Amino acid sequence: MKQQPRDADRLSAYSDAVFAVIVTIMVLQLSAPHSPHLSALIKLWQPAVSYLVSYVFIAIIWINHHYLSRLTRATTLPIIWINFVHLFFVSLLPFTTAWIAQTRLAATPVVTYAALFVCADGTYNVFERRVLRESDEVTDQQRRMARYRSLVAFALFTSAAVLAGFVPWAGFGLICLALVLHLKPDVGVRRRRRYYRERCRQGSCAARARQSRPADRADGPAMHLSRRADPAHLTVQSVLNSHTCCRSPSRSEMTGRTQPAAKARKVRKR
How many CB atoms within 10 Å of residue 24? Predict the structure, then answer.
């Protein structure tokens, strides 16, 4: 029977479509030179740089949005509206990119460009905080680290918007510096694996998670299908099932443990 798509998958698919349209609009705004010589391309270096920065910003947003959507098990109405507001500010990026390209990085267009980054990053921070707060696959330390990086990037974007009013080149460079903080996703697959390991250590378990094929067969066909569907091959249930101290024993294990004790009692009675 075909499974119905999750709400988080629908939200992620819609966001992917919006990002693809935004990138297409930006590249269509690049005007080709009328001269057949390569020297004509040198004069277009400022529009090319503005397009590159905007493209990297959209790529960073999509990567972080992708990892956050994997942590979203159920979408609520506030998460949907926050995502729509975030996409609204991102959709204005082609307009501001063309403006600073045509005005050769003038003060007012760069200020507007940086202010748009502030709004887009601010709404993303709210979206990230909401998703991480409702997810049980992230530790408190990971939430604090993600929050710290988001606040630092937001402060840099805000400083760039203020500095661009006086020195547009410096403000544009500060925007590029702030983008470096989001090159690596705040919460990724490795952190999810680390969360599972930390959860098992808290239960005083020193055994390692069995990820081999015999372990998959021991977990049963349902667990094998869930691991095949998950690229990380690690779920909370699979890790807890592979550690004896983190799960309750099965009925067969209970009977296997009680049978020797019952036999010993019969021998003592005789």
Answer: 10
Q: Using the structure block, give the residue that is written with the tokens 């390991």.
A: 197
Q: Is 129 exposed, middle or buried (0-12, 13-18, 19+ CB in 10 A)?
A: middle
Threshold 0.70, pTM exceeds = no
Q: Which residue has the tokens 């606040």?
A: 151
Do 82 and 196 belong together in one domain?
A: no
Distance CA 126, CA 124 (A): 5
Map residue 142 onto helix, strand or coil. Answer: helix
Q: Is residue 26 within 8 Å of residue 55, measured between CB atoms?
A: yes
Q: Which residues have a Cβ under 8 Å from the Cβ of 92 and sit 6 or more positions away?
A: 116
Which H or E run includes 199? helix 189-202
Q: Tens digit of pLDDT for each residue in 92-127?
A: 999 999 999 889 889 999 999 999 999 999 999 999
Query: Which residue, 236, 65, 210, is CA-closest to 139?
Result: 236
Q: Last residue of some domain: 132, 155, 187?
A: 187
Task: Please report whether residue 123 resides in a domain.
Answer: yes
Looking at the fold, whether 245 and 170 belong to one and the same domain comes out as no
Give the tens place of pLDDT for each residue, 2-24.
Answer: 444 467 788 888 999 999 999 99
CA gap 41, 126 in Å, rounded: 40
Helices (H), 7-44: 7-28, 39-42
φ, ψ of residue 252 to 5 degrees: the values are: -65, -40
Instruction: Provide the domain count of the chain.
Output: 2
How do residues 174-190 score in pLDDT, each as one tens digit? 999 999 888 887 665 44
* SS3 state at 35: coil
Q: Which domain holds residue 58?
A: 7-187
Q: Which stretches of the chain score pLDDT less than 70?
A: 1-6, 186-270
